[in-house]
Specification:
The chain has two domains: 216 residues, Rossmann fold; 90 residues, Orthogonal Bundle (Tyrosyl-Transfer RNA Synthetase). Helix 10 links the parallel strand 4 and strand 5. The protein starts with a strand and ends with a helix. The strands form two sheets. It has a three-stranded parallel sheet with strand order 1-2-3. A two-stranded parallel ribbon has the order 4-5. The mean pLDDT is 96. By secondary structure, it is mainly α. The chain is elongated. It is 56% helix and 8% strand. Bound molecules: tryptophan and iron/sulfur cluster. Iron/sulfur cluster binds next to helix 12 and helix 14.
Amino acid sequence: MRIVSGMRPTGKLHLGHFIGVLKNWVALQEKYDTFYFVADWHALSTKYDEGLDLNELSIELVKEWIACGIDPKKSILFRQSDIKEHAELYLVLNMITPVSWLERNPTYKDAMNQPEYREKNNAGFLTYPVLQTADIILYDANLVPIGEDQKPHLELAREIVRRFHYMFKKEIFTEPKELLTEIPRLPGLDGRKMSKSFNNAIYLDDDEKSIWAKVRMAKTDPARIKKTDPGHPEVCIIFDYHNAFNKEEVVEIEKECRAGTIGCVECKKRCAAKINELLSPIREKKASLNESMILDIINEGNKKAGNIANEKMEEVNKVIF
Ligand code: TRP
Ligand code: SF4
């Protein structure tokens, strides 16, 4: 079974990415034929006007993947824009995809309700799922690991595949299925969604000091004023973090919090220590990697992915012309 998934190079990764996506990607390498790519063209779909250094961001992204345990011996790592077949198939698929299908996409509809997006409203954003379909079906992926929010994109991918088969009377693509993973709740340190723009995230390359500085500032259960006040872990962000990163102690911490036998500062210290335990090997591994090592890995992956994409595109063109 083949798996294909991509990530947009829009900035450094945080704990939410690790727990939501990368941990899963790492585990999947053991059981599947895994292809992971830098979706740099996709990064432009919303951020074309932000002057992103996509080369630098792409190299940093792959560095962080590898630091987290993505193994170039087990997975094929490549960069979307290096494989021109993604663009070629995207063009072809755009010819057969009704605009009405794309306008129905919830991501698109949400964005159109936000004035700052509506102003940009570039064609590439509307057709984002078409490019994503090309990314997936070029490699005949069986499964695509995604979050809940990406489900409509996968549904569209299947519809586009069926339409292609119907239009050109030949079944040459695999219909991809989503691989949904249970993702533990991990809000940012202020309780909102973890995001760079809210400045509430712990980054994979944060050091021990900055982890503590961030954890220390997090809001806890407002009902706790004295250490002996009984707490409510279910309203506390720090408890969510224990739940995600400190399985060994989480049951005990819940008890102690409810009983008012642990103070929030002590609880936060244990939380920060666990996060640091998780991140310090990732930090070290990242520091041991340099740009030329990453470029070698990407070039290697590009060759393998490129061969498959090239063959597929020949098949596509034979069917069409
Ligand atoms: N849309 C995905 C995201 O924002 C990124 C992506 C692009 C992708 N192409 C893909 C994911 C193909 C899976 C398969 O996270
Ligand atoms: Fe949150 Fe821990 Fe304080 Fe309970 S003791 S409110 S879980 S920080």
